[in-house]
C-alpha cells in the first residue's frame, strides 16, 4: 500500500483562530465586502497576535505535514505602524511532569517584506515566511506564528485577514 503525497497543499487558518494579547481587538468586517478580520486600533502600544497552525502531524517519520512556509494576509489602514515582526515557534509538548520546549526555526521574509518599512506600510499585505529547513511536524509538536505589532502613537489600524500554511501532505 502506497502513500498519498501532495507537495502543494495549503491549509487556511481563519483570523478568528488567532490569540490576541494586549490591545483592544475586535472581530470585524474586512475592508473588502464579505470578508472578516481581527482588528486592533489602539494607538501607542505593542500588541501580540499568535496564529496556531492547524496542520496534520504524525508519529511516523515523514508523514503528516512537512511545513515549508506560512503566508499571512493583513492590511494596515490609517497610517503606517512602527513595527510588524514575526517569529515561528515550534513547540514540543511536555510529557508528564515536564514542561513544553519551544524552538524557533529559522525563516526568511519574502522580498516584499524583508525590511521593516515594507512590513509596516499602510497597504494590503501578503507576507510569506519561508522556513529555511522545512520540517515534518511530529505528533507531539505544534507550531505557532507570533506577530508583534507596534502602533507607537500612530493612527494606524492592523487587520489580520488570515494565514495559510504551505505544506507537503503525506498520508
Describe this structure in words.
- With 171 residues, the chain is mainly beta.
- It has a single domain, classed as Jelly Rolls (Sandwich), CATH 2.60.120.
- It contains one helix and twelve strands, in the order E-E-E-E-E-E-E-E-E-H-E-E-E.
- The longest helix is centred in the C-terminal third of the chain and has 5 residues, at 116-120.
- The N and C termini lie close together (11 Å).
- The mean pLDDT is 92.
Notable characteristics:
single chain; 1 helix; mainly beta; 7-stranded antiparallel sheet; 171 residues; 5-stranded antiparallel sheet; globular; 12 strands; Jelly Rolls; 3% helix
Question: What is the strand and helix layout of this fold?
Answer:
Elements: E1 5-13, E2 19-21, E3 25-29, E4 36-40, E5 46-53, E6 64-77, E7 83-92, E8 101-103, E9 107-109, H1 116-120, E10 123-136, E11 141-150, E12 157-170
Antiparallel strand pairs: 1-12, 2-5, 3-4, 4-12, 5-11, 6-10, 6-12, 7-8, 7-11, 9-10
Helices, by number, come to 1
What low-confidence regions span 5 or more consecutive residues with pLDDT below 50? none
Mean pLDDT reading: 92
Q: State the CATH class.
A: Mainly Beta
Roughly how much helix do the residues carry, as a percent range? under 10%
CATH fold descriptor = Jelly Rolls
**Strand residue content:** over 45%
Run of helices and strands: EEEEEEEEEHEEE
Count the beta strands: 12
Number of domains: 1
CATH architecture group name: Sandwich
Largest sheet: 7 strands, antiparallel
Backbone structural class: mainly beta
